[in-house]
Amino acid sequence: MNSSRNEQQSLKSLHAEAQAISDDIVAFRRCLHEEPELSLDEGETARKVADQLHLLGLSPRRGIGGHGIIADLIYSEDGPTIALRADMDALPIQEETGLSFSSKRPGRMHACGHDGHTAMLVGAAKLLTQWHAPLKGRIRLLFQAAEEINAGAKAMIAGGALDGVDEIYGLHNLPTLANGMAATRQGALMGSVDRIEIELTGKGGHGAIPDQSIDPIVAASAIVMGLQTAVSREISPFEPAVVTIGSLQAGEANNVIPHRAVLSGTVRTFAQSTQMGMEMRLRRIIRSIAEAYRCEAEIRYVEQTPVLTNHDQCLLHVESVIDQMLLPEQRVQAEPTMAGEDFSLYLEKIPGCFFWLGSGTKENADQAFGLHHPKFTLHEECLPVGAALLAGIAVSRLQKGVK
């Protein structure tokens, strides 16, 4: 009973300390927001993060998996290692928020709130460096590049980010959930992400003489429609899957049948078994339709990230911290989503948990502009909450020990 009470007091203390440094967290987030950098080009962002960590007396290692950063807080040489992760990259979107600290870089915007995630983890680092109670083990901070293109986590893992790590935790802001709230889910939370690219080769010619040509646009149109049968007729209605062709490029003139057509799309599933069978299904459909329309088909299929599945013990730990640091009524069950996250690659390697943190208004959050929208806004009251939760999850885990 005493240990439980002490844990709750420690978590409440972290929450109060996070509120005390709220202005610093907000200021750093705004600094990042003004100068967003796209995936694989986060060098200046990484420098700013490293500078903040140096000021806290840490020794960050840069250049991990590109522009990624690792920083360890060592409380003892023995004991478990708990990792906390934040992503740093922005999106190729023209900002339309009208904020006083809007992006200064045309066509680039932190429209997914990764500036907020980074600021939260820097804030958590400050809380953790000020922690004086004895802890056994270490906490590893991971600042990851290239999440938006599903490349960063894989590169971080290859760079040794998980070496010696026992568990990993992360969060993502959610503008359609009120700030001060958190959402968790047992098991699968986010869908797998695969990419498909198709190049169809026909025979170009005059648009008025189609019999002397082989039209790849007609074949492409049939393929777009045919691919939907993989979901509606080959997969159980109780197993969610999505096939979306988001790009079809062919020809330039209205009276010319082009020689080629290029399609690209995304494939999402919510179970590993479903993901494993999608490539075979789609290749068969594409080749059959292409042959029927006398076209050659070149197919490139890439499995980018698996289903993001939380580990039960780690989820229970996160929920306990949320309930003690905030209130039980401030935690809700998250709805599953087909949106993807390369945090799932970490969870394939080691136990951990990923959850949503509300970043919307207190009222009518469900009407907010969503992630990746040019008017997306992260309400900054969530920043110290996120910093405190990340720090609290790691501290509490070290206090309890990893079993």
From TrEMBL:
Query: Per the entry, which co-factors are needed?
Result: Mn(2+)
> What are the entry keywords?
Hydrolase, Manganese, Metal-binding
One GO MF annotation is: N-acetyldiaminopimelate deacetylase activity
Q: How is the cofactor bound?
A: The Mn(2+) ion enhances activity.
One GO BP on record is: diaminopimelate biosynthetic process
Q: Which SUPFAM superfamilies match?
A: Bacterial exopeptidase dimerisation domain (SSF55031), Zn-dependent exopeptidases (SSF53187)
Q: Where is the Peptidase M20 dimerisation domain?
A: 196-292
The residues the record assigns to binding Mn(2+) are: C112, H114, E148, H172, H372
Xref: Pfam families: M20_dimer, Peptidase_M20
This protein is called what? Answer: Amidohydrolase
What is the species of this protein? Paenibacillus ferrarius
